[in-house]
C-alpha cells in the first residue's frame, strides 16, 4: 500500500512524509517566503514604528530677565532734549539726568549708549562728556567703547588734563586688558596737540604690554621720533612694525607694492 505524500507547514518548516522500506521517514526543510511574507513577526518594531515629532513650544520671556531695546531710541532722544537747554553746570545736568531715570526699574544703559552715539555724531562734545561722566558715576557703562568715546570728546574739547586723568585711571585699573584702540586714541590725542614726548611714553607702555600698533600709530610714533631727533629709534620702529606693503593707485587700479622703509619715506615726510 502506497503511503500518501504529505506536506505540513508548521512555523515556517516544510515536513515531508514518505515511505522507505516500510518505515516512516520524516524530512524537514526551511522555506523562503515571498516578498509579501517576510517571515518576520507581524508585531515587528519596523512595521509599527511611528515618526514621533516633538513640538517645540513658544519660548517664555520673563520681563525680569529680558533686556529689550524697544523704545530705547526714543528714550535717547528724550535725554538729549532734556539736557539741550540746560546750562553747563554739573548740578543742573546731573539733576535732570537723575529725573530721567527716576521711574526706571533698572538703569537704561542701551538708551544712554545711544544718546552718546547721537551726541558724537552731532559733535556736541561738552554734553557727551557730561552724560558719560554721569553714567560712570552711577557705575554704568565702564567699557572700552565708553572710554574711547570720552577720550575723543576730551580731545575735541581740548581738555587734555581730564583726558590724562582718565587715561591714568584706565592704566591703573585695566592694565592687562586695554585695547589697541584705546592706545591709538591716546596717541592720536597727543599728536593733535603736538605733545611728542607724551606719544613716546604711551608707545612705551604699549610695547611693554606687547600690543602691536596699527599703521596710523606707527606713522605717528615715527614722526614723533623724527621731530625729537631720534632717527635711530625711528628706523628701528619702522623695521619692526611698519607694514612691508602699501597700496597705490596706478592707471585707475589699486595695486599693492613693496614699501620703501628708508628714512626719507614719503609717508612720513608728508605726514602732516
TrEMBL record:
Biological source species? Parasponia andersonii
Q: What is this protein called?
A: Pentatricopeptide repeat-containing protein
